[in-house]
Amino acid sequence: MLDGRGPRLARIARKRHGPRVRLVPAAIIAILTLSVAPHANAYNNSLYRNDNGFDTCLSKSQTMLTDWWSGTPWFEIGMYLGGSVGQNKGCYDGSAAVDRALNTGYAVTLYWYGPQNGTGCELGSFSSYFSSNTTTAYNQGVHEADLASAAATAAGLPFATRIFYDMEAYGTAGTNCRVAAKSFINGWDHELATNSSFWGAAYGSSCASYPVDWAGIANVPQAISPSDTKATDPNGGLDNGSAYGYPCLDSGGSTLWVNDQRVGQFSVDFSDANGNPLVYNGYRLTSIDENCADSYLPSTFGTESNTCRDVD
Question: 252: which of 35, 139, 157, 170 lies 20 to 30 Å off by Cα?
Answer without folding.
Answer: 170
